[in-house]
Amino acid sequence: MAAYGAxxxxxxxxxxxxxxxxxxxxxxxxxxxxxxxxxxxLEKIFPITKNIRQQVIDLNGRIREAIYRAQDEIESFxxxxxxxxxxxxxxxxxxxxxxxxxxxxxxxxxxxEMASSPAVVSLAKMLHRDNFxxxxxxxxxxxxxxxxxxxxxxxxKICDAPxxxxxxxxxxxxxRIREAASEAxxxxxxxxxxxxxxxxxxxxxxxxxxxxxxxxxxxxxxxMVEAAERIAGSIDGDPLAQDLLLSEDAQIISRHESRxxxxxxxxxxxxxxxxxxxxxxxxSNDQREVLPIIGLPGSGKTTLARSLYEDSSITxxxxxxxxxxxxxxYQVGEIFAKLFHSLETKGQKxxxxxxxxxxxxxxxxxxxxxxxxxxxxxxxxxDMWDEDVWDKVKHSFPDERNGxxxxxxxxxxxxxxxxxxxxxxxxxxxxxxxxxxxxxxLTVFGEGGSCPPHLKDIGWEISKxxxxxxxxxxxxxxxxxxxxxTEEYWKNIQGDTLDAAAKGDEAYLEILFLxxxxxxxxxxxxxxxxxxxxxxxxxxxxxLIRLWVAEGFxxxxxxxxxxxxxxxxxxxxxxxxxxxxRKSTSNNLTKACGMHDTLRDLSVKECGNEKFFHSRxxxxxxxxxxxxxxxxxxxxxxxxxxxxxxxxxxxxVTFARTILYVxxxxxxxxxxxxxxxxxxxLDAFQVYFIKFPNQILKLIxxxxxSLTYNGKLPSKLSxxxxxxxxxxxRHPKVIFLGMSxxxxxxxxxxxxRHLLFxxxxxxxxxxxxxxxxxxxxxxxxxxxxxxxxxxxxxxxxPNLTKLAMWTESPGPVDLHLDQVxxxxxxxxxxxxxxxxxxxxxxxxxxxxxxxxKLRLNGCSLPWEVMTVxxxxxxxxxxxxGEIAFEGEEWWPEKREFRNLxxxxxxxxxxxxxxxxxxxxxxxxxxxxxxxxxLEKIPEDFEYLGNLELMELVDCSPGAVESAEQMKxxxxxxxxxxxLKIQTYxxxx
Length: 988
Known about the structure:
Layout: H1 3-14, H2 26-44, H3 50-80, H4 88-109, H5 117-127, H6 138-160, H7 168-197, H8 204-235, H9 239-254, H10 269-280, E1 289-294, H11 301-309, H12 312-315, E2 320-325, H13 332-342, E3 344-345, H14 361-372, E4 377-384, H15 387-394, E5 405-410, H16 413-419, E6 426-427, H17 433-445, H18 453-465, H19 470-482, H20 487-501, H21 507-517, H22 521-529, E7 539-540, H23 541-551, H24 562-575, E8 580-584, E9 590-594, H25 597-609, E10 614-616, E11 632-635, H26 644-651, E12 658-661, E13 666-667, E14 681-689, E15 704-709, E16 725-729, E17 754-760, E18 780-785, H27 791-795, E19 802-807, E20 812-814, E21 825-830, E22 840-842, E23 853-857, E24 861-862, H28 866-870, E25 877-880, E26 885-886, E27 889-890, E28 902-906, E29 912-913, E30 925-929, E31 949-953, H29 957-973, E32 980-984
Parallel strand pairs: 1-5, 1-6, 2-4, 4-5, 10-11, 11-12, 12-14, 13-14, 14-15, 15-16, 16-17, 17-18, 18-19, 19-21, 20-22, 21-23, 23-25, 24-26, 25-28, 27-29, 28-30, 30-31, 31-32
Antiparallel strand pairs: 2-3, 7-9, 8-9
Helix pairs in contact: 1-2, 1-3, 2-4, 3-4, 5-6, 5-7, 6-8, 7-8, 7-9, 8-9, 13-14, 17-18, 17-19, 18-20, 19-21, 20-21, 22-24, 23-24
């Protein structure tokens, strides 16, 4: 189903602002008009019900091939200025026309309505003059009836709009309208019934009661009518309505921070209790014990293991604990590196031993062994596939007969029996029908929500068809939560899941495939893209969004920049439980995401079917038929490209638009051959180039380039006029002061949106008489020297939202942040800070009111300056690193930091922090590291109602003692049950 993304991509290529003017001709113009018209038609082919599914799949395949052919010819035409044959463009037009007609026919056959429409129609029908039974009250219901007619007209217009304009705000409003209309109808029906039974239905008291009911209903309905009118107006192109809709959508999206919140586990209470007892039980001969958990894919093995691992009452029984996931394409060194990186003790937080993870396998294995030696440990080995792998890993786990435990999850009963050291073996069972229904309703309606009565029976059958498998229930629940809450749609899903259940043990695969088939076209490409990454990958969201943007398969929105569209699509995949949050940002948004391995297997399979991605995972790998026509290449082990056979096989994928190197870091010792003249995306960040590959400079379609190269980038980089993302790293990290790794010609790359590099200067900005800013599209500028970031430079970056600057040492710094009025994130670092010597910002220190994130390191500012920061109205994250501020006392003022959610204090000489629970009202996380002078944590911080985590790493004994006292008080008094207080002290 890559047809939709292919169309969006071709539309962008043919757009008048992008396509070379001197190459335009009537055939090109005709193709552009036809594909841009086909795009909204495909959006209307949704939902894809069982009766048309195969027809739609076949049509999508034919459209995909036609659009791929058109794209190949047109991109070749741009490069060579000649076509493969004289009539090729006419042939493409003749191929697209009947496909468009067929798509229009299918779209016209799909009857759609908003979820709220039946409720609105039913209420309006009841209030119609011919139907309303209370004659004396008819005049009073006419106004509400007219409002409902307006509302239904708006809903019909919204429903007919392309799916791409149906935003989060629209879905939210649709649900609220349905609930309000249903409740209003029940209330009025109840009143009518009471009047029929009463002796004086026309009494004044009766009339007064009804008018009060009518008034309350009107107060609820009218704002929804106004909102629907605005949305309908935005579809007609009303700019004011579009702005209002965007504002509403932003408010809805802000609620989705809950994506990163931990969800309640359903149906595993007894499993948890049984495993916990086995883990903490003391035995006479307390040898190291391996506790296997086995079950089908998606049965909840990892979820159960994670809930045990994150239970402090369990981990407190052990001196050290760690977690490692083993993948099918494992490398022993990676297993030990991940495990070593995860080890955590009461004195050392996980990750602080990461410096040793680049060592050789034997040293890493020994490092793990030595870390665990003579300690009582808890280790989770997740998803073990192979007995040989277990044999290699188990020798890292010493047996001191001190009660150490290893939880091992696996799909294989044979591996579990091979690894276990006692009679204990826990097999996951399907959820009961009641637990299945509970999990489905929790997933669809959220905590505290309930299923509407008209959907309960259908929903129960859907949950039953999932055969008690948590993954199936959460994926189907995610699907239902995002689509129409209508009986018709739920019955379609009931029928599909019933067919899947008939597949027996393969039912879960059918249900996952069903969830993919029910994805809107705009999301399918994003889902397939995840198949490019190795199993169990933690994919940074910023990287993923930039890749999607460069690929060109995201349809631009008149109301949002394309990065916002990408972020919205990512959120929808998470809400559908097709992606999971692996890491969160400081302000609880998604930082890294991943995919369940069974869902990833589905993505990989469909990537092959759709010619979307070819992944080179190993040396011996059977290549599927048609691999040479794939549009994208992903290399999972970079070293493979050094092998001639692999290198040559990849070169045969001549239609590739994308190459991702997603394996471990590796030097590239061979000449880097780039035969892909249509390449859009080259992500070679993990490949160290000894010499710059000049073939890159001929890739005129390139939009994304990342690489590791220690020299200066060549001046001919300016040939890449379509470049949007440039990421250049030096390794090892070397900073040359007063020099730039970028060529002077970089200022000619006017389409750049994100520019990131190892600490360097910017080249001097040219003097040009031009009213249009040179970098008008730039949103991210990272690791630029403060000296080169002049007022003139920032004037040419009016849309900058993220900026990271550095200076070598303290002293005067010109800071002109008043020129970047949209700035949301700012980082300033002094590379060589000097105590008692501050950075003198000129003119006076100023931050735009749009700021949400701020990090300062080494500035040695006095605490009085904090007032400037505290007054920022939108600030959510504040990170103060090594001597960012100096002075013994910090006294926050009232009404400062009203929206701050995250605060980091690190390597500060602060002695007394004069704050209390009335400051920082929205603070969720407080992290303090290496604050050796601080006497104590401010009193009453446990009363900060939103505080969820307080973490101290190697702070003063007084600070640690006050945190421990606070921890005891919270536990004893139950003041803030969600607050978790953690201390790590190497001096203990």
